[in-house]
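fyi for ur records
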Amino acid sequence: MDEPPEEEQATSRGNAAPSRPADAERGAGTILMGALSLLALLLVASAVLLLQAASAASKAATAADLAALAAADTARGLSSGEPCAAASAVAGQHGAVVEACEIGATGVGTAVVRVSVGVPGLLPDAGGRARAGPPP
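which gave:
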């Protein structure tokens, strides 16, 4: 004897809810994997931006330190020339631009230099500040 189809069996047993076809959730794994791939892509992009910011900040700090040392050496007479010009030259060699240069503001033979380094992409410019010379 032939058995009735599943839908008829479900209703004959008293189940009011019709049974779902077996392929009702077909493609759900594809959507889940797509969402997980998008999340992974966002995490990688965030990590790249964070590394780019850290690298630019380190570059700015190094350029500020070296520019301040060059300016202080020039201000103390250890090198010839103008202190802020020496700071600008050293900062330029390290890909930075001097934004402020103060000579003798914190004591004789001292230099305080503030530089910025341009960051390509979405991030703002990185800045660095350094003081060089004898102790205050």
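Helices lie at 6-12, 28-75, 83-93. thats all i got for now
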